[in-house]
Predict the 3D structure of the following.
Amino acid sequence: MHARTASTSRLPITSDADLAWVRQHVRQAAAEAGFNLVQQTKLVTATSELARNTLVHGGGGHMEATPLREGVARGLRLSFVDSGPGIRDPEQAMTDGYSTGGGLGMGLSGAKRLVQEFTLESSPGHGTTVTITDWVSGVPSPRTGAP
Ligand SMILES: Nc1ncnc2c1ncn2[C@@H]1O[C@H](COP(=O)(O)OP(=O)(O)O)[C@@H](O)[C@H]1O
Ligand SMILES: [Mg+2]
């Protein structure tokens, strides 16, 4: 069954300033979806790594953020899209410590560990799309619920 999707937001990733907006948008969208602070921070951290890859390795692109709702479940899906050089060997790129850019090589692998669903689609010469999806777990915070 497909998740029913609300409206998708599309944010450019073409500069360091854009990275800050993208992080801020994800923090806000995650809070609105009902993610707790720890879950929000995991999503923002993964976003930070993936959006930076879009900018640095992909030559810029955009993020699509879609709030998800499936029955009572709430979630958030984020796609990082570029039309850059692509990734020839995605499995190698996902390896801890692998970097073609002199980085730490922990961005992709780290982001994957922070979220529930992670997909990387890339074709050399045509670009890269990384999509992460997270669902709200646990019960609503007592501070916002009934006493
Ligand atoms: N959007 C992208 N476009 C092209 N190559 C990418 C992209 N994202 C990641 N890569 C490749 O995967 C490698 C690993 O990425 P990552 O784990 O974030 O490490 P780092 O960014 O520190 O190099 C990068 O060095 C790069 O070769
Ligand atoms: Mg990186």
In short: The helical segments are 16-33, 37-56, 90-93, 107-114.
